[in-house]
Specification:
Blueprint lengths: L1 H23 L3 H21 L3 H4 L5 H21 L9 H27 L6 H31 L11 H34 L2
Helix pairs in contact: 1-2, 2-4, 4-5, 5-6, 5-7, 6-7
C-alpha cells in the first residue's frame, strides 16, 4: 500500500505536467482538466475524510478504496491522452466499459454515505438502482452529448475516432458504457455490505 500511495502522490505531479504541456500547446480545455480538475479529484478522498459525517463513522480504509478506483480512472484517461486512442485496438470502448463500472460503484457508495448521514433507512437495492440510473444518464447518454458539443466549443477531439465512423464509435461507446454500468451495479450489489463492514469504525 505504501508503494501505491507513493505512485498515487506522484501521479498528481504527472497530470499537472501534462496540463502545463497542454497549456503550452494552447489546448486550454485539457490544461484545465489536468492542472485543476484532475488533481482536485485525486485529493478529494483525503479532503472528504475530514468531514465529520465520514470520519466519525468510517476508518481510513475507505480512502484507500476510493483512491484505487480513482487511480484506475486516471490510468484509462491518461492512456487515451498519451496515444492509445490512436492505436487500432479500440481502447476507447474498453475505457468506457471500465470507467462506467467504476463510476457506478462510486456513485452508489457516495449515495450510501449520504443516506447514512441523513439517518435514512438504507436499502441496498435502492442504492444500486440509483447508482445505475445516474451512471447511465450522466456517464452514457449525456457524456456523448458533452463530447460532441465539447469538440465544437473547446476544439477538442473527444467525439472523433481515428479508425471507424464516428457514429459507430459513439454507438460502441454507449453499448460498452451501458454494459460497464450494469457490471458496476452487479459488483456494488454483491459487495456493498462487505465493504461497509470493513470500513466502519
Amino acid at each position: 500500500m505504501k508503494l501505491f500511495k507513493l505512485t498515487y502522490n506522484l501521479s498528481i505531479f504527472v497530470v499537472i505536467i501534462l496540463g502545463i504541456v497542454s497549456l503550452i500547446n494552447k489546448n486550454y480545455f485539457l490544461a484545465f482538466v489536468w492542472i485543476i480538475l484532475t488533481p482536485l479529484l485525486l485529493i478529494l478522498p483525503r479532503l472528504s475524510y475530514n468531514l465529520n459525517l465520514i470520519k466519525k463513522k468510517f476508518n481510513k480504509k475507505i480512502i484507500d478504496f476510493f483512491e484505487i478506483l480513482i487511480f484506475i480512472l486516471l490510468l484509462t484517461s491518461v492512456s487515451l491522452t498519451l496515444g492509445l486512442k490512436k492505436l487500432p485496438i479500440d481502447f476507447d470502448s474498453f475505457s468506457h466499459f471500465i470507467n462506467l463500472a467504476i463510476y457506478t460503484i462510486l456513485i452508489g457508495i457516495i449515495y450510501y454515505i449520504y443516506n447514512l448521514n441523513k439517518n435514512k433507512k438504507i436499502n441496498n437495492k435502492k442504492i444500486v438502482l440509483f447508482a445505475l440510473i445516474t451512471s447511465l444518464i450522466f456517464g452514457v447518454i449525456l457524456w456523448e452529448k458533452f463530447q460532441y458539443y465539447g469538440d465544437i466549443i473547446f476544439h477538442t477531439k473527444m467525439y472523433s475516432d481515428y479508425f471507424q465512423d464516428v457514429k459507430i464509435d459513439s454507438l460502441l461507446d454507449q453499448i460498452f458504457g451501458t454494459l460497464g454500468s450494469f457490471l458496476g451495479a452487479f459488483i456494488l450489489n454483491k459487495n456493498l455490505d462487505k465493504w461497509v463492514k470493513k470500513w466502519k469504525k
